Amino acid sequence: MAEIEVNGVPVQDDYSETFAAQMVRVLVTSVNAKWAREAAWETKGLGRSATAPPCEATVEREVGSEETPDGRPGFIIQMMDRKAESLQKCLALRLRKGAVPNPKTNVFDALPSELAEDRISLDDSVIAKFGDGFEEVRQEFGREVYRIPRMDGWLHIERSYGIREAVTGGMFLILAKTDEEALAAAEETLERVGEIPLVVVKCAASGSKVGANTHTDMVATINDKYCPTLLPLEGSHLWPEVGCVYEIIVSGPTEEVVREGMKVGIEAATGCEGVLAIHTANYGGKLGKGKISLPSLWAEG
Fold it and tell me: Where is the region Disordered (predicted)?
């Protein structure tokens, strides 16, 4: 395929290097949206990057009380890790540090049953033991939950969670004239992609590459070829008109939804003022084995 244009903006003929990860989808609810949001953001804390523990975690969307098992507002979080065992530990840790301390919270599995390939349990975890012997396993809200006494009443946390192999790292780069224009394009992209069911999307300024040229003990370092402040840099992929670059990362349970998210995101970004080009990056298979070509997002069939 050759370079294409979307909304008059060049889209690079290259591929995003994706990788497989184990995924859970978790719903955190509370008595109102304020406390549900607080608990969700605490639970997904330090979750933006997959390059260091704890596991990657992203808030997918807000849900209304009509969509939740306990009839209260909540937020859905996707958590991903390359290994199911480490994801299981991370799930318990994130819930213990984020959802458990916040007022009036409950936690449920939110992965559709038709997508689940297996299940992981919170048995023998910090969640199962937090009740210090006063916890019970019960049927509540149509789910099997741990019911744990708390100072503000009962805390309900579902006992097991659907898990599946997901696709993460669908990525493109927004190259824009100015900081303001790049950020506005990134914000529009996040809003548009965030409307797609089951997709999570993030904006990153760090733009990591796999490995390092100088500090070779590092797993990931800056993507120097896309740093405008380093111009003129030998091998840079930028030119003087580019003042700012943002990385957009799209992940989800299937490649189909990731491709849809990338396509919608690029269409949103290229419709914004000051966007000069859309690029992507890959690392010779060091990040992952998956490949999503940017032009292929618009291929027929």
Answer: 47-73
